[in-house]
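A quick aside before the break. I want you to see a complete sequence-to-structure record at least once, exactly as it would be stored in a machine-readable document. Don't worry about memorizing anything.
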Amino acid sequence: MSESARPSPEALLAESRREGHGRLKVFLGFAPGVGKTYEMLSQARARKLEGIDVVIGVVETHGRIETEVLTKSLERIPKRRMSYKGHVLAEMDLDAVLQRRPRLVLVDELAHTNVEGSRHPKRYMDVEEILAAGIDVYTTLNVQHLESLNDVVAGITRVRVSETVPDSVLDRADDIELIDLTPDDLLQRLKEGKVYLPETARRAAQNYFVPGNLTALREIALRRTAQRVDEQMVSYMRSHAIRGPWEASERVLVRVNERPGGAALVRYGRRLADRLHASWTAIYVETPSAQHFSEAERDRVAEALRVAERLGGQTVTVPAANVADGVVDYAHANNFTHIVTSTTHRSWWAVLLRRSTTYEIIRRAGRVSVHVVPEQLVRAMKGKAEKPGGPIPPFEGRGYPASILFVALALLAGELLQREFGVTNVALVFLTAILASAVLYGLWPALLASILAVLAFNFFFMPPLYTFTVAAPENVVALVTFAVVAVIASNLTARVRAQALLAKERAAVTDSLYEFSRKLAAVFTLDDLLWATSFQVAQMLKVRVVILLPEKDSIAVRAGYPPEDVLDESEIAAAKWVWDHATPAGRGADSLPGAQRLYLPMRTGRGIVGVIGLDSDRPGPLLTPDQRRLFDALADQAALAIERVRLAEDFERARLSAETEKLRSALLTSISHDLRTPLSVILGSASSLAGQENALDSAARRELVATIQEEAERLNRFIANLLDMTRLESGALAPRFEAVDLGDVVGSALRRAGRVLGGHKVALALEPGLPLLRLDPVLLEQVLFNVLDNAGKYAAPGGGIEIRGGQSQGQVRIEISDEGDGIPSGDLERIFDKFYRVQASDRKRAGTGLGLAISRGFVEAMGGTITAANRADRPGAVFTIAFPVPAETETV
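That is the input. The structure line, written in tokens, reads:
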């Protein structure tokens, strides 16, 4: 199968990406009131009659009765109410749509901005999530809401639309239906009150809805729709390997090359495209010979492509074995109907040796029209004659002497084979020398080797020997055949060598890009990312680099290679202009060309994220077409990485803010209960003692004093827990390790928790001979107290609490179990979170939710672990604290 007969991999990949996604149909209009929503509802009702599950996600009828009637027979997803600045607003309930999962959902006004606090800031992002879930979407859009047309529409109507949609959304649409209406009919609808209310309609008719504006907007909508349909047709042709052109619309392809006059050729192509009302593209075909171009030739190619961009055309660079193949194959694959090329005078021997590129394009063009620019135009631009097959490389000092040496070695080898082994046909030996010369040094040294090999073969091995005379007719045929094979082999081998060198260069670039992407993926701080980017760009493009990011109301240098922190005011102004307008400026650009550096924007799909400045001591343009493509690849990767880091920083800030708010709420709730309750009890008891001292007997007074003491201890524990948590989070906790006897610490914790455990049966079982542990006894006692306090709160009244200690697998384990309700399986880890309390029954336990969090922090600070589980033998929870046994244990 020929290359042209194969489907385009890019087109097939684009189709594969749509698998599993819903289909998007856009009803496009040129102004409000043309009937987009009405047509969308009409087609949705027809789909419902076909048995399709259709729901309304959001439809704005704007009080139009005929539109409202169409919504009656369709299921409507209730809107989500949201509070915003004292008002309650309704938005499409995205989660409800995804949960309902209809076959088709209607989403009106694609450019709508969602209420602050919604999951996505724009409605088109909601639509993208719906499509990703495999749900089809019908939506409406006016052409003035497209991002690329925002300025154009503002210049026509004097009204700038604030809500816009990226053009990529429309480009990804599977179907676009233009809802067209004549301006007169639309104005009549406006008068009849079918577009706006009367007062609004009068203002609109005076400003926006005037015949000239509507006619211009209608043409823009028609052209934009035609452009999208043309792209769909080209994609279909490429995915089905259909060889073009299909002359559904005119498309002009302009070939530029390294010769002078490229700019004139581009301007001719632009004029031709204007006459045909066609889109146009400038193409440069990169062949293996391009590696021998001089700087002046590379600059001419770059200048021609820049002129094409300034004139509004697209530019593309494609690699190919020869120029004609690259131009014609690209034209056929992308449905171009016209090719613009140039010809020039060539010498008679060049015409005999090789057909011109222009001739080959005409021969292979098929149904594509070829426009050949006259030679006089190129002369007017001081052009020079085209070299057949590309420029001849400069003389290589090693290539030609090496070719002579290879032929001499082949001659010696042939003599040796003939005298020692009786081999009569030594032509393959000379052919080997020719191939070696072609592989190592290219075409022209190989051609020299071919000529020398033919002469040597004739002189030394073809009778009569040692003359250039050929006696027998069969020898003439053999010599001619050898000469032809030698030339063909040298040509083919040299071409393969050139392609291999080009492939090697591209592989090196690809490898560098891959390593750069890996480097960016491993970077997590913005400063490291910017340094890596500036270094990579400087090394690959051989330029000086500065990267600038926004800072308050201006822009500032954040990285550079070589490091450079200060730019003068004019350079900062140029970079700020790029940031504000998202277009290149500075050296070699159309804007602010007097700047020392060339400043280029770093973009993502969400907009510009930074500016990168390039500088070099080389005269002329900073970047060749190849280098510009390489820079774009590097800048795109860096821009995405910058956005990733910023999103990660924003997410972290949002997470910390949410966590802080959560902790603040939990702390306030805890303080309101755990601080006020004991204070109220203390104040009540103290008031009773003070006010009724004579009326109380000694037993009552002792009871009140005991209550005050108990609640004061409870309040003290609460404050101690807050202080301990503060120490943990600030990193100020430093355990004081010493040899600890576990029995002593457990006993001290039990005595301290005596009041808490007073209503429970406590059982203690420690294995004898447990080794001494290197721990902080104060922290360990606090851990045991917190766990015992927790067991006392959650154990059933009168239930048992068991404390077991033992040694196994190089660890000393302490298990504290109770006979309470146990821990829900989903809370086994969450109980160690700050301010988290299990609600396992109908009564709320007192506490702050800090004790277990502090216990885990203390245990881990001492090198141990603490885990929670439910008892296997009966209801209840069990907490296991484990510490490693020191390598050298101490004895008591």
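Two observations worth writing down. The chain has 27 helices and 25 strands. Confidence is low (pLDDT under 50) at residues 381-396, 840-844. We'll return to this after the break.
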